[in-house]
Design brief:
- By secondary structure, the chain is of the alpha+beta class.
- Helices cover 21% and strands 26% of the residues.
- The strands form four sheets. The protein has a six-stranded mixed beta sheet. It has a four-stranded antiparallel beta sheet with strand order 1-2-15-7, with no helix packed on it. Strands 11-13-12 form a three-stranded antiparallel beta sheet.
- The two termini are 23 Å apart.
C-alpha cells in the first residue's frame, strides 16, 4: 500500500493523508484500495479496505464518511460517528475526529488553521467549487489557514463545456485564465486547481499548496471516473492529534 502525505506547512499536530488505489482487496474494475461504498463494489471488500487503511495510517478513529452530491453543504462535527453525513465538506475542532473527502477526479481540499486547532476536508467538483463550497468551509474558520489541493483531474485532460466556463467567469472575470480553448467547438480545458486558487485568493487565502497530481493520467495510482466510468474512489483524510 502507498499513501500520499501532503507537503504543506501544517502544524505538527495536524495529520493528513491521501489514499491511492495501490494495495487493497477489490477486484476489477475497482481493483486496489477502493474506499467507495456507492460504486458497485462488494461492501464487505470495501469495509476491509477501509479498515486496513485506518490501521495503516494509524487513524485515531474511523473516518467520518460523506454522502457527496456536489452540493455546497459543509457540516461541523464534534465527535467520531458511524453515520454517513449528507454533505460535501466536513470541519472539526475536536481532536481524533477524522474528516474525509472521497474523489475520482474532483478536487479534494484539505484545510487547517495555523494553530492546528481546526481542520476540514472538502469534496470540490466543478459545481461545488463554482457554487462556493470552499468559501462555505472557510466561513467556519476564524484564523489564518493553510490549504492543500489534492489529486484531481489535470488541466491537460479536463474538457468542459461553455456552461462551466461561464459559471466561473460570471463570478470572477479572472477565471478565464484557467480555461484553454480546444479544437472542439464550445469546449474548454479547465484547470480546476487554478480555479480553486483564484477563489481562495479572492477571499484572502494565500497559503495554498497544490499537489499537481492528475487522477486521469496516473491510472496505476488513482481512480478516475472520467477515464474509466465504472471505477473506485480514493479519499483524503485529516485530523487533529
Amino acid at each position: 500500500m502507498s499513501v500520499i502525505i501532503p507537503n504543506w506547512p501544517a502544524p505538527n499536530n495536524v495529520k493528513a493523508f491521501c489514499s491511492t488505489r495501490d494495495g487493497g482487496f477489490s477486484l476489477p474494475p475497482y481493483d486496489g484500495l477502493n474506499v467507495g461504498m456507492h460504486v458497485g463494489d462488494d461492501p464487505a471488500t470495501v469495509a476491509k479496505n477501509r479498515d486496513w487503511l485506518q490501521q495503516y495510517c494509524q487513524m485515531p478513529s474511523a473516518p467520518i464518511w460523506l454522502n457527496q452530491t456536489h452540493s455546497t453543504r459543509v457540516i461541523a462535527v464534534n465527535q467520531p460517528s458511524d453515520d454517513v453525513l449528507d454533505a460535501d465538506g466536513i470541519v472539526t475542532s475536536t481532536p481524533h475526529v477524522v474528516c474525509s473527502a472521497m474523489t475520482a477526479d474532483c478536487l479534494p481540499v484539505l484545510i487547517t488553521n495555523t494553530q492546528g486547532s481546526q481542520v476540514a476536508a472538502v469534496h470540490a467538483g466543478w459545481r461545488g467549487l463554482a457554487g462556493g463550497i470552499v468559501e462555505q468551509a472557510l466561513d467556519k474558520f476564524s484564523d489564518d489557514v493553510v490549504v492543500w489541493l489534492g489529486p484531481a483531474i489535470g488541466p491537460e485532460v479536463f474538457e468542459v463545456g461553455d456552461e462551466v466556463r461561464q459559471a466561473f467567469c460570471d463570478y470572477d472575470s479572472d477565471a478565464q485564465r484557467a480555461f484553454l480553448a480546444t479544437s472542439n467547438d464550445g469546449k474548454w480545458l479547465a484547470d480546476i486547481a487554478q480555479l480553486a486558487r483564484l477563489r481562495l485568493a479572492k477571499i484572502g487565502v494565500e497559503q495554498v499548496v497544490n499537489s499537481h497530481l492528475c487522477t486521469y493520467q496516473h491510472d496505476q495510482q488513482f481512480y478516475s471516473y472520467r477515464r474509466d466510468g465504472v471505477t473506485g474512489r480514493q479519499a483524503c483524510f485529516i485530523w487533529i492529534e
